[in-house]
Amino acid sequence: MNVTFDALPPTARVWIYQANRPLTQAELAAVGPHLTQFATAWTSHGAALRAAVEFRHRQFLVVGLDEAVAGASGCSIDASVRFVQELEKALSISLLDKAHLAFTGPTGLALLERRALKPAVAAGTLGPDTPYFDNTVATKAELEARWPAPAGRTWLARYFAPVAAEPAGGPARV
């Protein structure tokens, strides 16, 4: 059963799929009915799931599920992944590739390849206060409270940790 995200409880489970480019307004309008149709028809072992599906920031497909009504099963999760794959084909985008991280900056949303993370931190172009879209959030409450969040308050914090100074006389020898 299709509902709006506002109708989901804070405990609702969420999955976030990041597109490799922003969708156009025409693409968003064209895909809207498909999102509604999926959420309406999505089931788990024959039970209707209370779900919401929408694009946010023109680049993130967010799926929400009220597991208090009915939980997702392996088959229903497989169905959602097939739906995402269909969207990828229809829109000529990538939603399942995890090679890029999304940040907001002075020019808006920007994607950074994972392998470029350390150099960006070292160069100072990415800092602990840079807003980061942490797509690992698991609930609607987390989505609303910390998406985006300062990069230093997410799993990326380890990239901003100060490096321990070497003891006087250089590194210890064993």
What does this 3D model show about the protein?
By secondary structure, this protein is of the alpha+beta class. 28% of the residues lie in helices and 22% in strands. The chain has 4 helices and 9 strands, in the order E-H-E-E-E-E-H-E-E-H-E-H-E. The chain has helices spanning 25-41, 74-91, 117-123, 140-146; strands at 13-18, 43-44, 47-48, 51-56, 60-65, 100-105, 108-113, 131-132, 149-150. The chain has a 3-stranded antiparallel β-sheet. Strands 2-3 form a two-stranded antiparallel ribbon. It is globular and about 50 Å long. The N and C termini lie far apart (64 Å). 24% of the residues are buried.
Q: Termini separation (Å)?
A: 64 Å
Number of helices: 4
Largest β sheet strand count, sense and barrel closure: 3 strands, antiparallel
- Helical percentage: 25-40%
Uncertain stretches of 5 or more adjacent residues: none
Beta content comes to: 15-25%
Order of neighbouring strands in the sheet with most strands: 1-5-4
Describe the global form. globular
SSE-based structural type: alpha+beta
Q: What does the radius of gyration come to?
A: 19 Å
Average pLDDT for all residues:
90
Series of H and E elements: EHEEEEHEEHEHE
* Number of β-strand runs: 9
Key attributes of the depicted protein:
174 residues; alpha+beta; three-stranded antiparallel β-sheet; two-stranded antiparallel ribbon; 4 helices; 22% strand
Layout of strands and helices, then pairs:
Elements: E1 13-18, H1 25-41, E2 43-44, E3 47-48, E4 51-56, E5 60-65, H2 74-91, E6 100-105, E7 108-113, H3 117-123, E8 131-132, H4 140-146, E9 149-150
Antiparallel strand pairs: 1-5, 2-3, 4-5, 6-7, 8-9
